[in-house]
Every structure is written in C-alpha cells, then in structure tokens.
Fold this sequence. Notes:
Order of helices and strands: HHHHHHEEEH
Structural class: alpha+beta
Strand content: 15-25%
Number of strands: 3
Shape: globular
Strand order of the largest sheet: 1-2-3
Distance between the termini: 22 Å
Largest sheet: 3 strands, antiparallel
Number of helices: 7
Amino acid sequence: xxxxxxxxxxxxxxxxxxxxxxxxxxxxxxxxxxxxxxxxxxxxxxxxxxxxxxxxxxxxxxxxxxxxxxxxxxxxxxxxxxxxxxxxxxxxxxxxxxxxxxxxxxxxxxxxxxxxxxxxxxxxxxxxxxxxxxxxxxxxxxxxxxxxxxxxx
Length: 153
C-alpha cells in the first residue's frame, strides 16, 4: 500500500523479497518507494529498467504533488528526493508529468534473473487516495521467477 506521496504504508514479505529490501529494517520515515529507489542500491538494482523508471517516478510525483505545492510534508519529500539524487533534481526541472497507470515493470533478482510483472493499482478513492499495488506474472518466466524468489526465503 502506498499513499499519494509514495510512502509505503503497508507491505508483505513477498514484496520485500521482490525488491530485496527488508522494509521492517527501514526506518518508517524512509519507507518511500521513490526515496528507496534513489538511496538504496539493492532496491534500485531490483529495477531492471532504471533509465525508464526514474523519469516516470519524477513525473508521477510531480502530478501527485500539484494540488499540494504549499504543503510542508510534500515539500519535505521533494527536498529529500532532490538531496538524494542529482538525477532526480535534474529531471524535476524538466516539469514532466506522468499519470499513474497499470503497467509492465521489469525486475532483476540475483536468484531469478530479469523478468516482467504486471503492476495493477487498486485505489481507495477516486483521486489522491492510498493505492494497493499488486504485481502479477505476465508470462511463464515471470511466474517461474516469483516461484524461485519465494523458494529463496
């Protein structure tokens, strides 16, 4: 579960295994998908298409932040992201906007290799609510990868 600021407000062990980060060991203030992608090498390495993911994350955050530009919590997140990554700061200056959508994401795992999963978003409200993110295999390779990851626990 993520809120509109991409803070992780709920997770399960399978997600931790997928991104190779024990979120129970991460301070709650750092449990943010964007921040972890910027500041945690294991999380970032699990994203097989980083060059596509980072611009998308920046655009998604900009779109989500638009109604809250004067909100100190949102500004604190933006400051944290730009401090963590010069690339984030550079992309922020482009002013690109992205819309959250279901998409195919590519992951990398040391035991399972590179594989694709379908990301499905379930929203708690029509706009700006929390969202449940679910990853589903799109093919036999994705299914096999998830089975392999589960077996490594």
